[in-house]
TrEMBL record:
Catalytic activity line of the entry: (8S)-8-amino-7-oxononanoate + S-adenosyl-L-methionine = S-adenosyl-4-methylsulfanyl-2-oxobutanoate + (7R,8S)-7,8-diammoniononanoate
Quaternary structure and partners: Homodimer.
Lineage: Bacteria, Pseudomonadati, Bacteroidota, Flavobacteriia, Flavobacteriales
Described purpose of this protein according to its UniProt entry: Catalyzes the transfer of the alpha-amino group from S-adenosyl-L-methionine (SAM) to 7-keto-8-aminopelargonic acid (KAPA) to form 7,8-diaminopelargonic acid (DAPA). It is the only aminotransferase known to utilize SAM as an amino donor.
Top-level enzyme category: transferase
Native source species: Flavobacterium frigoris
Entry-linked InterPro entries: Aminotrans_3, BioA, PyrdxlP-dep_Trfase, PyrdxlP-dep_Trfase_major, PyrdxlP-dep_Trfase_small
UniProt subcellular location: Cytoplasm
Name of the protein: Adenosylmethionine-8-amino-7-oxononanoate aminotransferase
Gene Ontology cellular component list: cytoplasm
């Protein structure tokens, strides 16, 4: 019996309707931008395995850092204790985050990083005797699958079954071209009510919505409005963080710094689940009190896991190398060149690029559903051709590991062009 067949007996996969889904491909090895299945077929991982793996699979530098940490201290509880990897990581990370980010809270994935930010925003005002229990978010946002993160998300079929059991979130339009004025006016009307604790957003790029992009100058205006009305701003950098947009963080494009930032995915180079929520000193001080009940009562068993911290430190070191910065610029240049090659195709509506993120919208006669027939046809076509891409409806996006070669990238582009001929 194959590994793929054995998998079906017990494993429940994410975002999967198992009655209609095909058997899952069993991957046995990864190296750089490549993966191999149990039959030896090679795939180019053109989405860095859900955006977590910028430095390639089986990266020896990260693997070595993990091994050394495992032979020294694999884990210790972070309640009442600390350790050098966590201290070093806090020092290294705050040095490259916007300068107002001074305190870090560790957790284990992007959803929990967001969950913590939302809880902190609401409890800050509660600690100060102020009732602010609502959150503002963008339309079609995605922030995760735990309850607070899910409430902040705006892709309806992800949350439909739970919509009567969540905190209240009100949405504003994304300030894409033509929507800027409506976005600003809607936000101004909401914050004037003084009922909102925070505004959460994916800075510059909405990933799960199909790599929807908007200008930093427009986000600056929204953040400025929130600051004037004592509404905290939360930058969900789970996808955009660590070089994806061409800078360390999408927030580096802003003039206004967010009050909180959520980090995960590429934080450890895809090696170990880990997340961080960062805060201003002002927010931390809102919990700093003689009254124990004003503390943040939130924790995870593996908070600040030393092995995860070691992986993150190695990942940050790799990100800062001239080689990786050159790779990010190289991929961006290649994406822009591909736009010139494909944007005039009659099946292409729009193309867009930011950093290593490329997106292309396919012309359709009617709206394409998120996991509909077009998406499935495209996904299967790419898999057959040894390319891992996960289209979102009629949006094809590429977000590769920084170590992808030019030849591998060209193969991905060729597959995208060929896919346009089958739709």
């Amino acid at each position: 019996m194959s590994l793929s067949e054995r998998d079906q007996k017990h494993n429940w996969h994410p975002y999967t309707q198992h009655k209609t889904a095909q058997a899952h491909i069993a991957i046995t090895k990864g190296q750089g931008a490549l993966l191999w299945d149990e039959e030896g077929k090679e795939y180019i991982d053109a989405i860095a395995s859900w955006w977590v793996n910028p430095f390639g699979h089986s990266n020896p530098i990260i693997a070595d850092a993990i091994y050394k940490q495992l032979t020294t201290l694999e884990h210790v509880l972070f309640g009442g204790f600390t350790h050098e990897p966590a201290v070093l990581l806090s020092e290294k990370l705050t040095a490259i985050l916007p300068e107002n980010q001074q305190k870090l809270f560790y957790s284990d994935n992007g959803s929990t990083a967001v969950e913590i930010a939302i809880k902190v925003a609401m409890q800050f005002f509660y600690n100060n005797g102020i009732k602010k229990t609502k959150i503002i978010a963008f339309e079609n946002a995605f922030h995760g699958d735990t309850f607070g993160a899910m409430a902040a998300s705006g892709i309806s079929f992800f949350v439909e079954a739970f919509k009567d059991s969540m905190i209240e979130v009100v949405r504003i339009p994304v300030p894409t071209a033509g929507n800027e004025k409506q976005s600003i006016e809607t936000l101004e009307n909401l914050v004037a009510t003084k009922e909102y604790a925070a505004f959460i957003f994916e800075p510059l790029v909405q990933g799960a919505a199909g790599m929807v992009m908007y200008e930093a100058s427009e986000l600056d205006k929204l953040i400025s409005i929130c600051k004037k009305h004592q509404v905290f701003t939360i930058a969900d950098e789970v996808m955009t963080g660590f070089g994806k947009t061409g800078r360390n963080f999408a927030s580096n494009y802003l003039q206004e710094s967010p009050d909180m930032m959520c980090l995960s995915k590429a934080l450890t180079g895809g090696a170990i689940p880990m997340a961080i929520t960062s805060f201003t000193q002002e927010i931390f001080d809102g919990f700093y009190d003689e009254d124990v009940n004003k503390a943040l009562f939130h924790g995870h068993t593996f908070t600040a896991n030393p092995t995860g911290c070691a992986a993150a430190l190695a990942s940050l070191k790799l990100l800062e190398t001239d080689e990786m910065q050159h790779n990010i610029a190289r991929i961006n240049k290649s994406h822009l060149s591909f736009i010139n090659r494909v944007e005039s195709h009659p099946k292409v509506v729009t193309t867009r690029v930011l950093g290593v993120i490329f997106a292309l919208e396919i012309k359709t006669e009617s709206a394409a559903s998120y996991y509909g027939s077009l998406r499935n046809k495209l996904y299967n076509f790419f898999i057959e051709n040894g390319i891992i891409l996960r289209p979102v409806g009629n949006i094809i996006y590429i977000l590769p590991p920084y170590v992808i070669t030019d030849a591998q990238l060209q193969k991905v582009y060729d597959a995208v062009e060929n896919a346009l001929e089958i739709v």
